[in-house]
């Protein structure tokens, strides 16, 4: 005898189950793709043997991504980074940001660049310009013009507060801030479709542990006249890495000051995305919210279409 036909209620329940199954499968696949993309990213840290750059390098290594270091001295790299062979097989590349042709091998295939190169205020003006301004231009140009460039690029620059002062005293940073400001202006103007830039401008820097202070963000040196503590390089490193981890299409370029309060609840890792959102200008936050809502609507529409197709395939 033939089986009894399904009732209307049973057909609806089966369709709902098929749709739910399709959703779960799609979510699992998306998670797998996201993990592959994270693990396949190649990121480059310049100034990787410096006090801030080495911390950025270390945090990225801990994430399990492919990290490269641009260094000027192999012996220093071995001591600071703990590499073995300390060559390309270890992800260590010898180069000089003032020599554009030396950067090619290090940036080839990289999708993210963390610029932590800096020079002291006692250097000559020519040297300051070569490293702090021309060097930044060389690095960004090398990343953006590489053959087979990834569709999405991320560039983070660790700069400094104090760039609004016309003639900054040595205690604040001195004349090197002029070249840092020019580098910031260049990077802000160099964005292209698919490139996201972040400029972090810390106040006084310390070498203490991370996550011990409440981090504060602002703009235009407004915090210079406040009685605040130094910000630890380890906190700068984890914030710049968090900016990369939370990178997404349609995010506005970020440029903000960073300091630390003398009191208050320390900023934990889970608080960093909210801190980065706070670092945006109000109109940027509004625009980002609109983009997120539009993206959500787009995916909901696509999901409904995909589920209808999957559902039809089961019928």
Note down, in words, how this protein is organized:
This protein has 315 residues and is α/β, with parallel strands linked by helices. It contains 9 helices and 10 strands. The strands form 2 sheets. It has an 8-stranded mixed sheet with strand order 3-2-1-4-5-6-10-8, sandwiched between helices. α1 (8-40) crosses α9, α2 packs across α7 and α5 (125-144) runs parallel beside α6 (176-189). The protein starts with 7 loop residues before the first helix and ends with a helix. The model is unreliable at 19-37 and 303-315 (pLDDT under 50).
Helix content: 40-55%
**Envelope shape:** globular
CA radius of gyration: 24 Å
pLDDT < 50 runs, ≥5 residues: 19-37, 303-315
Mean pLDDT across all residues, rounded? 85
**What is the distance, rounded to the nearest whole angstrom, between the alpha carbons of the first and last residues?**
23 Å
Secondary-structure-derived class: alpha/beta
Beta-strand content estimate: 5-15%
Side by side, the strands of the main sheet go 3-2-1-4-5-6-10-8
- Work out the number of β strands: 10
Order of helices and strands: HEHEHEHEHEHEEEEHEHH
Total number of helices: 9
Largest sheet: 8 strands, mixed
């Amino acid at each position: 005898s033939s089986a009894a036909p399904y009732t209307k209620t049973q057909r609806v329940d089966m369709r709902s189950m098929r749709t739910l199954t399709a959703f779960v499968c799609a979510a699992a696949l998306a998670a797998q793709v996201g993990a592959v993309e994270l693990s396949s990213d190649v990121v480059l840290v310049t100034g990787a043997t410096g006090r801030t750059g080495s911390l950025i390098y270390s945090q990225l290594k801990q994430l399990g991504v492919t990290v490269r270091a641009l260094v000027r001295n192999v012996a220093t790299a071995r001591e600071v980074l703990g590499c073995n062979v300390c060559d390309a097989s270890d992800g260590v590349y010898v180069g000089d940001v003032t020599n554009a042709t030396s950067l090619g091998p290090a940036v080839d295939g990289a999708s993210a660049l963390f610029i932590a190169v800096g020079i002291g205020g006692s250097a000559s003006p020519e040297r300051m310009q070569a490293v702090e301004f021309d060097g930044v231009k060389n690095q960004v140009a090398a990343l953006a013009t590489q053959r087979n460039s990834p569709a999405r690029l991320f560039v983070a620059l660790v700069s400094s507060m104090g760039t609004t002062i016309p003639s900054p005293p040595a205690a604040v940073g001195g004349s090197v801030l002029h070249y840092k400001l020019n580098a910031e202006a260049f990077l802000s103007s160099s964005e292209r479709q698919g490139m996201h830039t972040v400029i972090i401008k810390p106040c006084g820097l310390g070498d203490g542990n991370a996550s011990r202070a409440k981090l504060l963000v602002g703009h235009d040196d407004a915090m210079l006249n406040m009685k605040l503590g130094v910000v630890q390089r380890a906190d700068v490193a984890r914030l710049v890495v968090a900016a990369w981890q939370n990178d997404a299409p349609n995010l506005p370029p970020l440029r903000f000051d960073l300091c630390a309060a003398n009191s208050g609840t320390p900023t934990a890792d889970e608080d960093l995305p909210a801190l980065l959102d706070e670092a945006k200008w109000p109109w940027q936050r509004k625009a980002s919210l609109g983009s997120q809502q539009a993206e959500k609507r787009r995916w909901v529409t696509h999901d409904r279409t995909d589920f209808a197709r999957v559902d039809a395939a089961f019928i």
